[in-house]
Design a protein that fits this description.
Strand 22 and strand 23 form a beta hairpin. The chain contains 10 helices and 25 strands. It is an alpha+beta fold and 449 residues long. The chain starts with a strand and ends with a helix. The strands form 8 sheets. Strands 1, 2, 4, 5, 7, 8 and 10 form a 7-stranded antiparallel β-sheet that branches. It has a 5-stranded mixed β-sheet with strand order 3-12-11-6-9, with no helix packed on it.
Length: 449
């Protein structure tokens, strides 16, 4: 089927001008199909010998008519096929109006054609006749003169697209994943108890990523995606209106039950040491040594000594900082390059070829691919392509198993030592600073030198 547009009510008899596509993108080509309208309203094909005068009346800068390899806004006498070629450098949507007149003296008026007449008409058919040479500024009014025949018709085509309604004039914010922490027992998971069963020493705190509880249902929606069109690149650009989204869920907590079960004393504040309503303990200097023991992992605390919950929570928060570092590293190495390589171009909506005229359609095409990039692809229950989630799981698992080199002072010198992941975490500033602050409080309140 073809799109038929009339300038006004169609004539009882005349030429119907049909563009094969009602809208084309810059640089595209579409056929101009001419039909004869009979008095009873039916449409018929013209003979290959029928000739026409054709010219552009509006949208002069939007393209040219193409006949026999020649591009021009006007032809004095041509035969079908006739095409229209849109200008490739068009920056705004424009509407082209073409007028066609049936030349009455053409072959269609000859009832019988002998061989000689047919030879003459064939020669004429293969000769493209343009009107006289135009001035340099002809494009401002398409062509001079008028097309005036008893049987004429107008046709229209839109050149351009709706993409220029969404030109990028804002900062596109890339997605940046983070995590949200929850207390132990959330999601019906007692991580403290589980990790204690698997450990030979007291588990005083936990930081556990709950991989089964990722927050994709609330995140992977079109309303969370922003889109705009970049005409110089002919591509849609995508971002997010949730720049820091807690996609992953983590149980982060101290494990007071484990501490008391193992005979240690959980301490929230150093004032509780001497408080009669709390521990009522006069040996504050031993408590200070317990605090200094928190510089190691596992903590070097005397039997029945104090576990400083503030330090342990700082240790788990350092785990959170480390996890975020792994997330950010994978975003830079995998997520952003993958998103940048995915292109949706401007054009008639086409999911398969990644083209969209409308912003919402562009967002839907992007979301479909975005889900695969984040969650991976499966076929018949088997993962065929790893997404960001699986890559993060594998990368973080490998990360926490490796050894780390840190600087350690020995006298006036600084040397490199190799430590495991837990001791690496214990050297994060959030942990060491917390210990130093509490030690200064000891010094202020009690003299344990």
């Amino acid at each position: 089927s073809f799109f038929v547009a009339y300038n006004e009510d169609p004539p009882e008899e005349g030429v119907i001008v049909i563009f094969a596509e009602q809208q084309i993108a810059p640089g595209d080509t579409t056929q101009i199909i001419l039909k004869r309208r009979s008095s009873d309203g039916t449409l018929e094909d013209f003979s290959e010998w029928d000739s026409f005068e054709i010219g552009m009346l509006e949208g002069c800068d939007a393209g040219k008519i193409l006949v026999g390899g020649v591009l021009a806004p006007y032809f004095e006498e041509v035969n079908q096929p006739i095409y229209f070629v849109a200008a490739s450098n068009l920056t705004e949507t424009d509407t082209v109006k073409v007028r066609v007149g049936l030349i009455e003296s053409s072959a269609s008026s000859i009832a019988k054609i002998n061989d000689k007449e047919k030879e003459i008409l064939t020669l004429r058919k293969n000769t493209t006749k343009l009107q006289k040479t135009f001035g340099a500024n002809y494009a401002t009014y398409c062509f001079p003169g008028e097309i005036d025949w008893p049987k004429m018709g107008d046709g229209f085509v839109v050149v351009g697209d709706e993409c220029d309604n969404y030109i990028c004039n804002e900062v596109i914010i890339k997605p940046s994943f983070t995590f949200e922490s929850f207390p132990n027992g959330t999601f019906n998971k007692d991580v403290c108890d589980k990790e204690q069963e698997e450990s030979d020493y007291v588990v005083t705190g936990v930081n556990s990523v709950i991989w089964s509880e990722v927050n994709y249902k609330e995140y992977l929606k079109t309303e969370n995606i922003t889109a705009c069109y970049e005409p110089t690149l002919d591509k849609w650009k995508f971002g997010t209106n949730k720049p820091l989204y807690p996609y992953f869920k983590v149980i982060m907590d101290v494990c007071t039950t484990n501490i008391t079960k193992k005979g240690y004393r959980p301490l929230e504040d150093i004032a509780d040491i001497c408080d009669p309503a709390k521990w009522n303990d006069p040996d504050v200097c031993a408590a200070k040594k317990d605090l200094e023991g928190h510089k190691f992992y596992p903590s070097k605390v005397r039997s029945g000594g104090y576990i400083f919950l503030e330090v342990d929570m700082a240790h788990e928060m350092a785990h959170g900082q480390d996890f975020q570092w792994v997330i950010d590293s994978l975003q830079s190495a995998f997520l952003y390059p993958t998103l940048d390589s995915f292109e949706v171009n401007c054009g008639n909506d086409d999911v398969l070829n990644r083209k969209a005229n409308d912003k919402e359609e562009a967002k839907r095409i992007f979301l479909s691919e975005y889900q695969k990039i984040i969650m991976g692809e499966t076929a018949k229950g088997i993962q065929i392509k790893k997404g960001f989630e699986q890559k993060l799981f594998d990368g973080y698992k490998s990360h926490i198993k490796q050894a780390f080199m840190i600087d350690k002072k020995e006298g006036s010198k600084s040397i490199k030592i190799k430590i495991d992941h837990e001791n690496y975490i214990n050297n994060f500033p959030i942990v060491t600073t917390t210990i130093d602050v509490i030690l200064s409080e000891f010094k202020t309140i009690w003299d344990c030198n």
